[in-house]
Amino acid sequence: MVLCSIASGLSFGHSAKGVIGTLCFFRFWLGFGVGGDYPLSATIMSEYANKKTRGTFIAAVFAMQGFGILFGTIVTIVVSAAFRHAFPAPPFYVDAAESIGPEADYVWRIIVMFGTIPAALTYYWRMKMPETARYTALIARNMKQATADMSRVLNKDITEEEEQVRLQVVSGDTWGLFSRQFMSRHGLHLLATTSTWFLLDVAFYSQNLFQKDIFTKVGWIPPARTMSALEELYRIARAQALIALCGTVPGYWFTVAFIDIIGRFWIQLMGFAMMTIFMLAIAVPYDYLVKPGHHTGFVVLYGLTFFFANFGPNSTTFIVPAEIFPARLRSTCHGVSAAAGKAGAIIGAFGFLYASQDQKKPDKGYSAGIGMRNALFLLAGTNFLGLLFSLLVPESKGRSLEEISKENFDDDKVDPTGV
């Protein structure tokens, strides 16, 4: 993550295609690092926390993403404002080439390289962090090391016998991801976590990546052709900061506050339901909301969809996979679920871009789509599907990881009649 954030800002090439090509290469490997950090962060916290406050701690880890989003918008505002002041440029419709200006090339590079800072700050402590005791004891089968690690983390003496009882080690538990045992115990769980994360990200990234298009449609920021590149960047970042501050960040921390009170299942169900309702509340009167004088109502409804995304499935889809699968496959299943989410993000990003094009006057280079209003109806339907698949998600509130994943449960000792 550190290396690729720097490399992304240093993307090189003699042409626009060359720069974009190298940028995509480095962003791919940055994604590789982020894709590893997602399951590791969730799993480490879930395996170190106690069952009463486990949800709160995992949610707090994920809630820091909200501050990351806000910090990213602040960096963008500061950098773009500084360059805009130092290097004024005409609007695009006056002079297309001069409206960008050679200095603008430095702006995105500086912003991208700022991503190095948070990753670098955590590097030392992450390297010093021991493997979780559950992995060391249950998978590596090294009870002595697991006991030593837990004694160090908890700052108290723990005997091997105490750790053995706490972890409820199951001998001979070696079945894998594609085994009959996994499918019978956790097949539906994996379907639930992958499908809900996929459907969430179709809607969530559609909203995130094309905020600027929506803000322009409702007149919150001027049309791109009336601004210089740096002016447009500044205004988009300012609008995104307001959405993050009023909707995104509070939503994350509402989850932290209520996850171990309400439970994962009900928060996820409520989140998808409210996202569906607010998306419909935007789509149905869309033609009215985009008229001058009605933009405040649009922004409030739009912000509420982000609030309930984060006080809802955007948080719980990160939490649940770290709790309901067995220790051997916990990170793997979390990674599979997260990857399904990012597949949804790709579909949502490209799909919304093309689908939202005007039916009669699409943007230059695009074919006619179904229009912004119909695209919002489509996102509402996606959220509703997420609600339906959420019915498959088990509640893990107040239960130990071994109880949830049935690691202390032996199929061979169960009466086949179920009695």
Characterization of the model:
This protein is mainly alpha-helical and 419 residues long. Helix content is 71%, strand content 0%.
Notable traits:
mainly alpha; about 425 residues; about 0% strand
> How many strand elements?
0
Number of helices: 19
Sheet having the most strands: none
Uncertain ranges: 412-419
β content, as a range?
Answer: under 5%
Percent in helix: over 70%
From the alpha carbons, calculate the radius of gyration and give it in angstroms: 24 Å
> Residue-averaged pLDDT, rounded?
85
Looking at the structure, what is the overall shape?
globular
Write the layout of secondary structure elements.
Layout: H1 2-9, H2 16-48, H3 54-86, H4 96-100, H5 104-113, H6 116-128, H7 133-139, H8 143-154, H9 160-167, H10 180-209, H11 211-217, H12 229-262, H13 264-283, H14 286-289, H15 295-310, H16 313-319, H17 330-355, H18 372-390, H19 401-405
Helix pairs in contact: 1-2, 1-5, 1-6, 2-3, 2-17, 3-5, 3-12, 3-16, 7-8, 10-16, 10-17, 10-18, 12-13, 12-15, 13-15, 13-16, 13-18
